[in-house]
Every structure is written in structure tokens, then in C-alpha cells.
Amino acid sequence: MTMTMADRISDQKEGPTPAQIQRGRRTAILLFAIGFGPMVFATIMFYTGWLNPVGHTNNGVLIDPVVPVSELQLQTRSGQPLGARFGPDKPEAQWMMLVVSGECGGDCEQLLYLARQVNIALGKNANRVSRAAALGSVPADLAQRWNSEYSLMERLQPAPGTAPAWPAGVNPEKTPRILLVDPFGNLMMHYGTGNTGKEVLKDLKHLLKISQIG
Questions:
Q1: What is the value of pTM for the model shown?
Q2: Do β-strands 61-68 and 186-191 pair in parallel, antiparallel, or remain unpaired?
Q3: CA distances from 20 to 7, 16, 109, 189 (A)
Q4: Are 82 and 156 spatial neighbours (Cβ–Cβ below 8 Å)?
Q5: Which of 36, 72, 74, 185 sees the fewest Cβ atoms within 10 Å?
């Protein structure tokens, strides 16, 4: 029997068949794997050291287990939560060097300077790493120089009524640190004034090379 146009329209209104639904699900899974699979795989490689042919030793202190950056309860001056920038659903997410300190004295500014110079030294990969600072207080002299020396260092602050839950081994009120945040929003390594710019740069170059995320 020949199917008329009306019959075809009627069949289309009945919705997709189970076979079509199954094919659609397979397509969606495949697209997700293509888009985010390499990101997940690279993260597993870094944190486990699996398939690391270089035998790289980290210069920073690994945060184990990793801590979501959202637990720091930090936000921008416009009120945007820092954690909202990261995650597998954010293809434009970057790595971040986050300088944290109570009163920003000499050691704190040393880390601000170190983060700036490392970012510059990344060259063509500099745009894959952002910089930010969460500081309890800033001396007047540094505040005057901030826009000229650290204009690309975004200032963050705790959300109203909250206090950051710092990872184990990190206490900015006593010792300023640089926290390294991956594009998934994980606090995964930290550095202090005992680290050189070359050491931080070496770690970042290695991470950017093996991950290709951010």
C-alpha cells in the first residue's frame, strides 16, 4: 500500500522511535567524549602520574586530596563566585595562579611579583593562565602601585558572611601562598617564597603540555 503525505505527517507527529532515541543518545555521548574526554584523561594522567614519560617531579606542594576552589568562598568585586568560572562545562576556563595572604607584606608582594613574571614567561601560553589575589589588607604604598604593576592581577574577596576553607597546609594569615587552580576548579598545588620563578614556570609548562586544557 502506498503511504500518502498525510500518513507520513501522522507518523512524524507520533515522535521518534526507540531506535532513533537510542541513536540520539549514542551521538550525545560521543560528542561529550570528543569534547571533554581529553580534559578528563589529562587530569587523571597528572594526578596519578600515569603515562608520564618525563618522570616529572613537581616543585610545588600537591594538595591531596584536591579541594574545589568553591570552598574558598571567594568572589569578584562585582559579586560573581570564583567557582562559577571553572568546570567541564566551561570550555573557556583557564588555569589560575591565586596569591593568598592576610596582611600583604614583603613576602606577599614577592609572590605577586613571581606570579606576574611567570605568567609573562609563558609566552604564547600566557593567555591560558590567569592571575588573581585574595588579600586581607594591602599597604598604602602597594595600593598606589597596584594599577601600574599588577593591573592584570584580579582582586578577590570573601563572600559576605563567609570564611575561606583553606586546604591542609595552607594558612595565608601566617604564610602567603600561590595556589594553583586547574580548569576544572580544583586547588591542586601551592607554592611559597621558598620556590623560585623557574620552579613554578617548569611546573606550569609541564601541566600545559600534558593537559591541553584551559
A1: 0.76
A2: antiparallel
A3: 19, 6, 60, 46
A4: yes
A5: 36
Contacts of residue 117, defined as CB under 8 A and 6 or more positions apart, other chains included, come to 197
Which residue(s) pair with 154 in the sheet?
132
The residue with cell 614583603 is 106
Distance CA 72, CA 159 (A): 9
51/38 Cα distance (integer angstroms) = 14
Q: Closest Cα to residue 129, out of 40, 58, 75, 205?
A: 205
Report the C-alpha gap between 96 and 106 in whole angstroms: 22
Range of weakest confidence among 7-11, 62-66, 81-85: 7-11
DSSP assignment of 23-60:
HHHHHHHHHHHHHHHHHHHHHHHHHH-TT-TT----SS
Can you give the C-alpha Rg of the chain in angstroms? 23
The mean pLDDT of the chain is: 83
CA dist 31 and 53 (Å) reads 29
- In this structure, what C-alpha cell is assigned to residue 125? 601560553
Q: Residue 88, Cα to own-chain centre: how many angstroms?
A: 10
pLDDT tens digits, 69-91: 999 999 999 999 999 999 888 88
